[in-house]
Amino acid sequence: MARNVRQLHCRPDDVFRVLANGWLYPLWVVGASRMRDVSDAWPREGAELHHSFGSWPLLVNDTTVMRVWEPPYRAVLEPHGGPIGIARVSIDVKARGDECVVRLQEEPVTGPTKLLPDVVFDAITRWRNAETLHRLAYLAEGGAPGTEGGASAIGRASSAEKVPIQR
Predict the structure, then answer these.
(1) Strand 32-38's sheet: what is its strand order?
(2) Which label site among 16, 110, 121, 147 has the fewest CB atoms less than 10 Å from its CB?
């Protein structure tokens, strides 16, 4: 299982506002190239994102299913990558004062990547997910458009003034 950890200069709620907006998915997930549709139920458990990965003309249509949605602490996504197989991606967020620490873990569930030795899968995936967390940080710290109540919209207000995430 590949693990990456990054400290973000925002609150856990800011991270979950980005995750809750399915249309932002290709902005933070390395390899996702375009969105095709976002389920009206997103981000509830069982809801789906429909996107593609790769570059034209070699695009593969993909679906990601939300398996666990526990803001502002945890989300588990299950990307279905066509011929690449299915992965499980866990995003765990812990507050650290006015900031937070995000741990992203990814493991193959089915497909050819499951056949790779762990050391090979982990090295490749950690490299990619370091960039994924870097992109997620930009969006969460900057209050990405479409994330009402994000960091740029409310600044560094006290927790009593912050906009809560609905569960």
Answers:
(1) 2-8, 99-108, 87-96, 74-80, 58-70, 48-55, 32-38
(2) 110
Token pair belonging to 107 = 């493991």
Query: pLDDT digits over 126-157, tens only?
Result: 999 999 999 999 999 998 877 776 544 434 33
CA-nearest of 48, 87, 40 to 66 is: 48
CA 161 vs. chain centroid, Å, equals 26
Longest dimension (CA), the chain: 49
Six token digits for residue 34: 């375009």
Given a cut of 50, is residue 88 above it in pLDDT?
yes
Q: Is 70 left (phi over 0), alpha (psi -120 to 50) or beta?
A: beta
